[in-house]
Amino acid sequence: MGGPMTLEKRAVAERAVDKQAVDEQAVDEQAVDKRAVAERAVAEQAVDKRAVAERAMDERAVEKRLDTGRAEDWLLDLAQRHRLSPTQRQIVQRMLGMFPDVAFLSTIEIAEQTGVSQPTVTRLATALGFAGYPEFRASMREVVLSRNTDIPDRHSAVDLEVANLGALKRVLDAERMTAAVQLLAATSPLGVIGLRASAALADYFGYFARRVLPAVHVETDASCVDDTLLELRHQGATAVLVFAMPRYPAATVDALRSARRLGLATVIVTDSALVPFAPDADVLLVAPVGTGLVFDSHAAVVVLAISLLDAIAGTDPVRTQERLEAHEALVDRWAF
How many other CB atoms are there within 10 angstroms of residue 152's CB atom? Predict the structure, then answer.
């Protein structure tokens, strides 16, 4: 009888051990779950903190870009409102990519980074209307550090030329345009002078003028201007057309005064009514130039030139038609 009782006790003891093992395993699993929950919470907090930090960095980056953009717009607008040399415009273009740091650099540092001399940087500051570089730098710093958004929007070169063409309408409709047409239509031969930057404009006008006018002489060589003017006068010319775009060559001003001494009327196409040689013009036609790029752009000047020629051709429509037909007959010889 002792045998079965012993087996039963042993079974009870084994079940108790198994239950204890199950309980201990459950406790361990609960502990693991708690640790997992805690680790997930820590990980989520870390992710949240990183996200917050990244958002803050992004916001600071955006804010910096906005501040930089305002400063760039300020400098570009300033440059467009002043007459700068090609070298000075190149410095400005390089400085546009250096904000905000450029507002805290010395003339030496800017000179090194833009590849020019220190005096050139100083001259840029005065060309932009400041008493010197310290005043220019102080203004740049104020723009960079300011929250002020009252800064002009940046204009592209195309936008500026569109504005220039709009301003040209007043010139084309003005009495001085009519006076210029009368003077140039009445002269034969017609002399056209353009030196340096204006040479291409003179050649452009002369190329088409030869198709509608009987005698056109274009001069783009400064060393020959005096001889050309004298020859024009001897051949019966009464007026001369002069393109005078900045920078204005001294030889152009000399040519204007020589023409007047010879009794030739002068029609000048230039970029401003305030040019120093305005008193040497019988008629001054103004076509603003684009100054937003490294070199001037002459879209309005070209439109003025071809409009002037069109009006001159219109004074003798029969001759114009005959000459155009004669030139059209030659097209097959040179057109591809």
Answer: 13
Contact partners, residue 13, CB within 8 Å, separation at least 6: none
H-helix or E-strand spanning residue 193:
strand 190-194
- Give the range among 19-28, 45-54, 57-66, 237-246 with minimum mean pLDDT: 57-66
Mean pLDDT over 67-80 rounds to 78
Q: How far apart are CA 85 and CA 164, in angstroms?
A: 20
pTM: 0.62
Tokens of 203: 């050649």
274 token code pair: 């305030």
Beta-strand pair 283-286/239-244: unpaired
Instruction: State the residue for tokens 């030659």.
Output: 330
Do residues 309 and 180 touch, judged by C-beta distance below 8 A?
Answer: no
| pLDDT tens readout for residues 109-120 | 999 999 999 999
As to burial, measured by CB atoms within 10 angstroms (0-12 exposed, 13-18 middle, 19+ buried), residue 215 is: middle
- Tell me if 322 sits within 8 A of 314, measured CB to CB: no
Over the stretch 124-137, which tens digit does the pLDDT of each residue have? 998 888 888 998 99
What is the sign of the dihedral through the CA atoms of 113, 86, 79 and 61?
Answer: negative
Burial of 246 (0-12, 13-18, 19+ CB in 10 A): middle
Q: How far is 224 from 230, CA to CA, in rounded Å?
A: 10
Neighbours of 182 (CB within 10 A): 16
